Amino acid sequence: MSSPKELLRDEGVVLLREGDHPYSPEEINDLIALCQKLPRPGGIGQENRLGVGRILVDPVDIARGERGYAPATVEAPEIAQLILDIVASERAMAYWADCFGQEEVIVRRAQTNFLHEGDQVGWHDDHEANPEYMFSIVVGLTNEYTGGEFLAQITPDDQRRFRVNRGDVLIARAALQHAVDVVESGQRISLVLFTA
Q: Which Gene3D superfamilies does the record cross-reference, listed alphabetically (predicted)?
């Protein structure tokens, strides 16, 4: 069986189940409670329908400026810091650095995505937001939804679907074309870190 590092290198995406990543069940519970408290204005672009709770805003937010959007802001900095203390702890960042084969990993942007019935995220790659991004880390925070799979275009002939459940972590290369399919019912909540 391939390691996460090998899957990232060869396919650009890997789904890690609870116990295979640096976040404990207790930390996942804390993240869920904290993320539920975040204000959640709409997402970016017409192709996306979701609420976004800002945790960390990248000062080099190229896509927003070029598209004429007002700069994003963190509306609940105290809650955002508590979330970052968990997801970007020294222990977690050391784990991700090893997994990504990097000396150091820096979180450049972080947000919680709230998708309800009918919401989706259109096809894109994370370099569209910032070409310096290397990987995204998607932490699943709910199970109570249908649809809403993470879609990954591995090659022109190989498109894969991943269901990111509560406590799962999906990691993907920033250059990977991906989307989130329409949520058919319930609420899909995930916490996303964009790293360099």
A: q2cbj1_9rhob like domain (2.60.120.620)
Ramachandran area for residue 129 (φ above 0: left; ψ -120 to 50: alpha; else beta)? alpha
* In the block, residue with structure tokens 């784990």: 95
Distance CA 149, CA 16 (A): 15
**Conformational region of residue 74, where left means phi above 0, alpha means psi within -120 to 50, and beta covers everything else:** beta
What pTM was estimated for this model as a whole? Answer: 0.92
* % of the chain surpassing 90 pLDDT: 78
Chain segment 55-78, per-residue pLDDT in tens: 999 876 655 555 566 667 899 999
Structure letter (DSSP) for residue 142? -
